[in-house]
Amino acid sequence: MPLPDYLQPGLNLVFVGFNPGLKSDQLGHYYAGPGNQFWRFLYESGLTPRLLSPKDDASLPGFGIGLTDLVKRASRGSNDLSTSEFRSGLPILEQKLCQVQPRVVAFNGKSGYAAAIGRRCDYGQQSETLAGRPLYLCPSTSGALPMKREEKLKFYILLKNLLDDLRTGSGAR
């Protein structure tokens, strides 16, 4: 069984993963790999008021955050997925996002999104939107990404700032 989507109207933010890892698939919870920093980054950036764990994934909509994946098939890593899987997942994702209309859509990592659209991307807020919503690319929270923890966390803090700005009406492109 693929991981369920945790999506509903009125969300501030939807995180989109590339696809579930084997540990997440085995346990039935998002970002369950032992080295994954997703839950800690949510808390340390201020996106959640307390530290959650993978077992809390179904409760995230209560914090205004949804979860889904671009590709629902589990694998050891996103390198095990084909470009066509990423590209075919994008219209399905857009349809889901059109239904729930979150304030912001954020990808956990950029390579899957880049494969889906066929070009390179940088981290941070993008000039394009997805399903008419502001689009943000975060560094992957996987321990496999060779980027310093503090550098990754900085992008999650900037995402929190973007959400705060949108709530107060003080900005976003």
Mean pLDDT: 92
Largest sheet: 5 strands, mixed
Q: Regions with pLDDT < 50 over 5+ consecutive residues? A: none
Please tell me the CATH architecture by its name: 3-Layer(aba) Sandwich
Order of helices and strands: EHHEHEHEEH
Structural class: alpha/beta
Which fold name is given in CATH as the topology?
Uracil-DNA Glycosylase, subunit E
Proportion in β-strands? 15-25%
Q: How are the strands of the biggest sheet laid out side by side? A: 2-1-3-5-4
Q: What's the helix count?
A: 5
Mass-distribution shape: globular
The helical percent reads: 25-40%
Tally of domains:
1
Distance between the termini: 38 Å
For this structure, what is the CATH class?
A: Alpha Beta
CATH H-level name... which superfamily? Uracil-DNA glycosylase-like domain
* Number of E-state strands: 5
Radius of gyration: 15 Å
